[in-house]
Amino acid sequence: MEEKKTNEISELDITLEGKILIDKSGNKYRYVDPMTDKGFKILFGSEGNEELLINLLNGIIPGAEIVQLTYHNTEHHGVSEEDDKAIFDVYCEDKDGVRFLVEMQNWSQHYFNKRAVYYSTYAIQDQAAKEKKHQKKTLGKENWDYNYAPIYVVCFLSFNMKRTPEDLIKIKQDEYLSFYRYIDIETKEELGDGTTLVFIEMNKFQKQFQECHEKKERWLCSMKNMRGQLEIPEGITGTELETLYSKGEIAALPKSKKLNYISYIMSRNDELNSRAEQIADAREEGRVEGREEIIRCMVASGMAAEEIARIVKMESRMWRTSLEADIFI
Question: What residues make up the domain containing 197?
Answer without folding.
Answer: 31-248
